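Subgroup meeting minutes
Present: P.N., E.W., G.H.
Scribe: E.W.

1. P.N. recapped why we're keeping a running log of single-chain structure predictions: easier to compare across weeks, and new members can see raw inputs and outputs side by side.
2. G.H. added today's entry (190 aa).
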Amino acid sequence: MIKKLTKLAGLAVVTGAVMLSASNVQAVPITGGISLGGTYVHNGATLGAATAFTSFSGVTASSVAGDYVGLINAPVTMSAFTFTPSIPTSAIVTPLWSITATPTTSFDLTSTTLLFQSNTALLLEGSGVLHMLGKTDTFGTWTFSANTEGGTFSFSSSNGAIGVPDGGATVGLLGMAFMTVAFMRRHISA
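Output recorded in log:
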């Protein structure tokens, strides 16, 4: 009987240590939003005929909130992308934009929808994954507007983080706790 109790005590200590160490690992999602601005080149005779943006220049973080606060006016590298037809899964833009200032930040575009297009304006929306050094990758939304008013070619892009569950770590820990209790009950009553 003492041998059984010693084994059970050892198992309880190991299980407790695993659960405590696992509880210290927590997902820290990105919060807040960022807006970018700059100039672009598209592939059409007019913005209304364009299907892709071929290059961007002078892109900076023009408005920031939450975790992005330290990135105001930071230079941004923006990738060319096709917006119509909508992005197929094989053409995910990784990254759509990136910032090397601290904290290093980027956004992978995984979907896009064309909402409006004319010879002078364009509006897109989509979603993807936000990345930030020291944070958990976080699902986010994206809006993009471009215009040619006044002979300038300007755009703005905004991203916002959407909170996501922790990926099942909490459920896994709860399951492990229930299994330990059931195991201990079975062996103590035997």
